[in-house]
Design the sequence.
């Protein structure tokens, strides 16, 4: 009888541990959140402010598999960023190719930017224009929510919205 009870207790303990195990392991949802400073490249935009606040979201759409070398992965993502100061605003919505090797990553993206800028006559204009970005970054593998730092150059059809962003972010 003692062996039977110890077997039942052991089986229940193993079942309980196996039920708890998946609850502690969270699967990433593929969302990255970042914030930092945007440094505009033109003097007209810098007249508003030398450093603008920038924030962005990026969602991993699809893993890509084609001849990756050891430790290299790639995927497509969709990103939406925002940087603004005074009468200038960039809101690029981009499709990105992201490549990762170890903890380093790069990204190139293109799409549209919902933009606002000051025209030569002093009035403001808003339009949907071509936008792109190029980024380099490093991801720290700490805990269940990896933290990353990146430098990202935003370009747009309107040069007053071009500039470099330095950000810190988390991956969920």
Sequence:
């Amino acid at each position: 009888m003692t062996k039977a009870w110890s077997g039942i207790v052991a089986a229940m303990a193993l079942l309980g541990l196996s039920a708890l195990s998946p609850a502690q392991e969270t699967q990433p949802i593929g969302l990255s959140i970042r914030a930092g400073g945007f440094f505009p490249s033109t003097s007209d935009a810098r007249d508003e402010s030398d450093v603008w606040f920038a924030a962005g979201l990026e969602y991993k759409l699809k893993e890509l598999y084609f001849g990756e070398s050891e430790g290299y992965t790639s995927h497509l993502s969709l990103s939406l960023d925002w940087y603004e100061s005074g009468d200038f605003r960039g809101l690029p919505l981009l499709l990105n190719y992201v490549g990762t090797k170890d903890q380093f990553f790069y990204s190139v993206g293109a799409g549209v930017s919902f933009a606002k800028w000051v025209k030569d006559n002093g009035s403001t204009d808003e339009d949907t224009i071509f936008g792109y970005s190029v980024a380099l970054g490093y991801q720290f593998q700490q805990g269940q929510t990896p933290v990353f730092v990146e430098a990202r150059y935003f370009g747009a059809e309107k040069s007053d919205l071009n500039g470099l962003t330095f950000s810190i972010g988390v991956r969920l």
Observations:
- The chain has one domain: 29-171.
- The beta strands are 31-40, 52-64, 72-85, 88-90, 92-101, 104-118, 124-140, 147-156, 163-171.
- Residues 50 and 110 are 25 Å apart (CA to CA).
- Helices lie at 2-24, 43-48.
